[in-house]
Amino acid sequence: MFFYYICDIIKINQYKYNNKIMVEKELDKQLKSILKGAEDVLILDELKILLAESIKSDKPLNIKLGLDPTAPDIHLGHMVVLTKLRQFQDLGHNATLIIGDYTARIGDPTGRSILRPSLSPEKIEENAKTYMKQAFKIIDESRTTVVKNSIWLEPLKFSEVLNITSRFTIARMLERDDFKKRFSGNLPITIMEFLYPLMQAYDSVAIRADVELGGTDQKFNLLMGRELQKEFGQKPQIAITMPILVGTDGSQKMSKSLGNYIGVNENPDEIYGKIMSIPDTVMIDYYNLLTNLSKKEISDIQVSIKDEGLNPVVVKRKLAYMIVERLYNKDFAKEAESNFNKIFKEKSIPDDVSEYIINKDDYPLGKIKITTFLSKTKLCSSNAEAKRLVEQGGLKIDGKKVSDINFELSLNDINFKVIQRGKRHFLKVIVK
Asked: Which part of the chain is CATH 3.10.290.10?
């Protein structure tokens, strides 16, 4: 009897030991994935405890990401934090995507020197639909809970708003860098803007977030969520911030207004070509922030470039292929790669070129000035841009450069010819 009792104790201890090893291995795996590319984790020790508890209990964490639909499109800069959310999903955790339809009425004051223009509810709703469609190219729709924060923010009574605001001081709000700069520069700050971080913080309370993700510029807002959860008797969320992705210019934050962005909804050829145009110096950052390659795999790429003489162009091609494949699929990635090769390696024209139809009856003289044609076809945004393009040698007709801004296209000669703007934009002219 005693022998069997000892055997049972050994089995129990062995089970506990094996279970402990399993938890440690899984914890190590999850931490490696979560910390890859992250700028900061507040607080790392708390995250380790939270993950360990999640693994032991087999209860997934609630990961929060808020998006304000202040514009209709998202670009690879947004993809950074969405990629981190997808990594949490792949580790088995729950993703809660908050559509800030209510916070968007104020607009995030982060980095702003003036008050944002207000958006109508209709415009916010319209933007939200396109946001979702594009976001689901990156995250798993089937494992994402999408909720609008107007559900809990709109019904708040004024007494409840006062209760929330009473928990923070003006001095605390002025710790925020952009508020501090505006205050010291005698630039106006509205009381409404002070409410924005409190509203975002209340989102965390409403959904009981375990982890909130955001860019480094969102650190203050994420910490406010931690503080408000404490005030409401909840376990404070872990704040994970991601670096800001630089644009195709290699120096400034990716932004539509700066024209250095790569939209997630752009066609595969455009995405591939733009990735190939980024400076070599930021290529590894793109690998870290936009792909699921491990730190070791990315480190091996760096070593191959530095010590083994691997051409960075080869590495950049792989990056472009991976991003197009992720946003579309393998077939689109192969086609984009093939079209890029035709343009840059074989110096030929892609198979799939858009057509522009000219009605001969609209031009009694049978001619059209090249700058007018470029702006009319949207190859250039204006006559001024068209003039610059021609003067700088960026225009070709059937492979022959045109540098005279007074050049006129003859409708008798232009039929089925290809107009090329720069390296990646082609248009076949059809005369009818």
From this structure: 355-431
Q: pTM surpassing 0.90?
A: no
Phi (first) and psi of residue 108, to 5 degrees: -65, 120
Write phi, then psi, for 369 (nearest 5 degrees): -65, 140
Give the residue carrying structure tokens 């605390």: 172
Query: pLDDT band at 412, cuts 50/70/90?
Result: confident
Cβ atoms 109, 181 nearer than 8 A:
no
Tens of pLDDT, residue by residue over 249-268, are 888 999 877 778 899 999 99
Q: Which residues, at least 6 apart from 266, have a Cβ–Cβ distance to it below 8 Å?
A: 274
Q: Comparing C-alpha atoms, which of 371, 368, 358, 365 is closest to residue 402? A: 371
**CATH 3.40.50.620 domain position(s) in the chain:** 36-242
Strands in 395-397's sheet, in edge-to-edge order, are 355-358, 425-431, 418-421, 395-397, 400-401
Residues 45, 49, 55, 57, Cα dihedral to 10°:
-170
Report pLDDT for 384: 84
Query: For 34-48, 107-121, 142-156, 164-178, which range has the lowest pLDDT when averaged over its residues?
Result: 107-121
Q: Which of 1, 2, 3, 57 is nearest to 26 (CA)?
A: 57
Question: CATH second-level architecture of 355-431?
Answer: Roll (3.10)
Secondary structure class of 214 (helix, strand, coil) = strand
- Where do the H-state alpha helices sit in 36-75? 44-57
DSSP calls for 234-281: PPPPEEEEEPPPB-TTSSSBP-TTTT---BTTS-HHHHHHHHHHS-GG
CATH topology (fold) of 36-242? Rossmann fold (3.40.50)
